[in-house]
């Protein structure tokens, strides 16, 4: 029987991907006590980088929001692994960190990151509300348009 969060994902028409393997020397998540730190996740869809380029150059704000949504789905896949397969163990999304590959002069990083933040709230309700940092950067690994990391508390 699917848990409450898995059922919510289904209501939203979302399916979590398999947890992505790291592309360098790091672990996809670290757990200490009841806290989980999820490493930065790229906008992978079906195992392929779905959104590349820079916001304000070749990527629109709408495409960037979809990119951060994909990143957050990949965060959830890692989180599911960290929680032993049970996303109902999530007590609170404490913080999201967003990295937005940005052309010079692009200043709408916060709007782009709303794709991930809005999805967090849609999935977890009040437990999905979080602190956040969003940073514009000149380039991300594999030319990804966005990357999202998370700090989450478990029950």
TrEMBL record:
Pfam families according to UniProt: YjgF_endoribonc (PF14588)
Domain of life per record: Bacteria
Matches recorded under InterPro entries: Endoribo_LPSP/chorism_mut-like
Parts of the chain that traverse the membrane: none
Residues in the signal sequence: none
Domain Endoribonuclease L-PSP/chorismate mutase-like as annotated: residue spans: 6-151
PANTHER family associated with the record: ENDORIBONUCLEASE L-PSP_CHORISMATE MUTASE-LIKE DOMAIN-CONTAINING PROTEIN, ENDORIBONUCLEASE-RELATED
Protein name: RidA family protein
Annotated source species: Elioraea tepida
């Amino acid at each position: 029987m699917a848990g409450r969060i898995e059922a919510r994902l289904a209501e939203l028409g979302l399916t979590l991907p398999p947890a992505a393997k790291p592309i360098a020397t790091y672990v996809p998540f670290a757990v200490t006590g009841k806290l989980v730190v999820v490493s930065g996740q790229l906008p992978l869809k079906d195992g392929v980088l779905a959104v590349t380029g820079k916001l304000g150059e070749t990527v629109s704000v709408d495409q960037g929001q979809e990119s951060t949504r994909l990143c957050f789905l990949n965060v959830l896949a890692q989180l599911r692994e960290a929680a032993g397969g049970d996303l109902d163990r999530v007590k609170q999304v404490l913080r999201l960190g967003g990295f937005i590959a940005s052309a010079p002069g692009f200043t709408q990083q916060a709007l782009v990151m709303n794709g991930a933040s809005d999805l967090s709230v849609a999935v977890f309700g009040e437990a999905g509300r979080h602190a956040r940092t969003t940073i514009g950067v000149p380039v991300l690994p594999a030319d990804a348009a966005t990357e999202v990391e998370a700090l989450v508390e478990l029950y």
